[in-house]
Design a protein that fits this description.
Chain lengths: ~300, ~280
């Protein structure tokens, strides 16, 4: 499938400025196309405009210049707003600030209720969404008594109940402990696998971005890098210049290369990294000075 | 550092049970929220008619039966009353001091009268029963259902251009944010105490000043949360009350009729008994 889910052309945006100061452009002529069914990670340091971009994808913000088309719909068309928001769900950073009810299933029902879905179908959608995120047994619980990861899963279910074609995650794991992060990432992969949804994941975690089809790096309101995770992470220097890290494994290979070892440029996870190192050592028969690090990588 | 004081601060906040809902599957939980709101209104009216020990006992019996049926723990009920102790003590003292009548004893310039003590007891019982009755409603009804019921009951006011849906939504979001803000207040208090702030010492003015470092961050955070919540609601297609449907459609059933009839009977009984002087 190569339909275009999102088409952004020359998008500029600025927030209303305080009196007496000129508004600063947060997005500066950004152009981007996202394929339907693709999984795109968006990276960029704080303030680079990631959230501002995300909010254009479901018409929470409207372009000051340029255009945003979502599944062929212009986000500036007022009468399409609900249609657009229904297609493009959005999960925010803090689950506490997006859950609307003190009862799980009532929260998940909120979006279909707003859309005027008939009651029996709301029930169907709520049950399906809760099962999808593995929170069905908790449907009658109070969210504030659940863990952070569970709350975020409920927030995701609340978005899935709209049956969106595309889901934008704006740093969904930033407030979670490692376990909660894993739960949420598990759901994102499942969403891709089972629903074939278009996923846009804004994140600070390189390991999360490494699993995407495509990585976009933003810098001061523009796309600074764009490519497969392998292509983007191979550029350690450029990433560092943009204030970003690379996955630990890639950093290890990068440092080894700088020491003069002929290892590949990039590895996206521990297994690939260990494999690359093993192959290298087999080929050269060399006992490197970095053998301790190799064992560490192997041990993972 | 005083750890028990730390825990103490948290405990008081945990006592605020407003907006709390204890999910369950009893008849009382299943009653239509409109019924529960109306029954509560009837109950409160009856409470104000009750004058005599017999009528108070009758009301207490009804309340006890409701608590028992709903399986809400008595300890939870009592815990909810704790923040009210000060109000009850103050009204009692005022009643004892300012009611004229047959003196029981007196010292200095204070005379305690029989009527004063009676009034104090009556008012205290009334406050306690009133609050417990209200708890029965909020503990057994989820905030969304509660506000849905209110919205329907106030529906006729829409003709008078009263923004009924908006008011109901505001109330439901306020109830939604209360547990979050309580949790947050707890965290801020702990953080300030860890830095050596003292909240339990000094005169009233000093105590009030000590609260400032709690209130300021709390307000800022409450506004930020409200703002984010509004954005998240919009992202989930919220656009006012037009064409909204509901997960659970409210329908009055036989049990609702029975509950209403029963409470009307109790109200009638109380009025008759009081008029007969029993
Ligand atoms: N509501 C707002 N009002 C004014 N300025 C804002 C607002 N939200 C974000 N900004 C500014 O826009 C820039 C980009 O912010 P944002 O899109 O949130 O970046 P990111 O999500 O990449 O951290 C920042 O400089 C930020 O200060
Ligand atoms: Mg952001």
């Amino acid at each position: 499938m190569s339909d275009i889910a999102i088409k952004i052309d020359g998008l500029t945006y600025f927030y209303p400025a305080d009196e007496g100061t000129a508004p600063v452009d947060v997005l500066r002529g950004l152009t981007l196309e996202l394929e339907s069914g693709s999984f795109t990670a968006v990276l960029g340091h704080n303030g680079s405009g990631k959230s501002t971009l995300a909010r254009h994808l479901n018409a929470l913000l409207l372009p000051k210049g340029g255009s945003v088309y979502v599944f062929g719909m212009d986000t500036r068309m007022e009468e399409l707003v609900l249609e657009i928001r229904r297609r493009v769900g959005m999960v925010f950073q803090n689950p506490d600030n997006q859950i609307v009810s003190n009862v799980v299933e009532e929260d998940v029902a909120f979006a279909p209720e707003n859309l005027g879905v008939p009651s029996p179908e709301i029930r169907e959608r709520v049950d399906e969404a809760l099962k999808m995120v593995g929170m069905y047994e908790f449907r009658n619980h109070a969210p504030h008594l659940l863990s952070g990861g569970q709350r975020q899963r409920i927030a995701i279910a609340g978005v899935l109940a709209m049956r969106p074609k595309c889901v934008v995650f704006d740093e969904p794991t930033a407030m979670l402990d490692p376990r909660g992060r894993e739960e949420v990432m598990g759901i994102i992969y499942k969403l891709r696998r089972e629903y074939g949804s278009t996923v846009i994941l804004i994140t600070h975690h390189m390991e999360e971005a490494a699993r995407a089809d495509r990585v976009i790096v933003m810098d001061s309101g523009l796309v600074a890098m764009d490519g497969s995770p392998r292509e983007v992470f191979s550029n350690v220097e450029e990433l560092s210049a943009l204030g970003l890290d690379v996955p630990e494994e890639t950093r290890l290979l990068y440092e080894l290369r700088r020491e003069g070892l002929n290892v590949p440029l990039c590895a996206l996870d521990a297994r690939e990294c260990a494999g690359a190192l093993a192959k290298y050592f087999k080929k050269t028969g060399d006992i490197p000075s970095g053998s301790r690090t190799e064992r560490n990588a192997d041990g993972k | 550092m005083n750890c028990s004081a730390l825990r103490g601060g948290a405990a008081v906040l945990k006592d605020i049970t407003l907006g709390q809902y204890f999910p369950g599957d009893t008849v009382i939980h299943r009653l239509d929220p409109r019924t529960k709101i109306l029954v509560l209104i009837v109950y409160i009216t009856a409470l104000f008619f009750a004058e005599t020990p017999v009528t108070y006992a009758l009301m207490a019996l009804c309340l006890a039966a409701a608590i028992w049926i709903s399986r809400i723990k008595l300890s939870v009920m009592v815990r909810g009353l704790k923040p009210l102790v000060l109000v009850i003590v103050l009204t009692s003292i005022l009643n004892i001091l300012y009611t004229k009548g047959e003196p029981l004893f007196s010292f200095w310039i204070i005379t305690v009268t029989r009527e004063g003590v009676m009034n104090a007891v009556k008012i205290s019982v009334r406050i306690i029963m009133l609050v417990m009755g209200t708890f029965m409603l909020t503990y057994t009804t989820s905030p969304i259902m509660l506000t849905y019921g209110l919205e329907l009951l106030m529906g006729p006011l829409k003709k008078l251009k009263v923004p009924v849906h908006e008011l109901a939504m505001m109330m439901s979001m306020a109830l939604r944010l209360i547990p979050t803000l309580i949790e947050e207040t707890d965290k801020i208090i702990s953080a300030q105490k860890a830095r050596g702030a003292e909240f339990d010492t000094g005169n009233l003015f000093e105590k009030a000043r000590a609260m400032l470092p709690i209130l300021v961050p709390l307000f800022i955070s409450a506004f930020r949360r409200a703002d984010e919540l509004a954005t998240a609601m919009e992202a989930r297609c919220y656009h006012g009350g037009e064409n909204r449907t509901r997960l659970n459609v409210l329908k009055l059933r036989l049990r609702d009729g029975m509950a209403l009839g029963l409470s009307a009977a109790v109200l009638g009984g109380v009025i008759v008994l009081v008029n007969m002087g029993i």
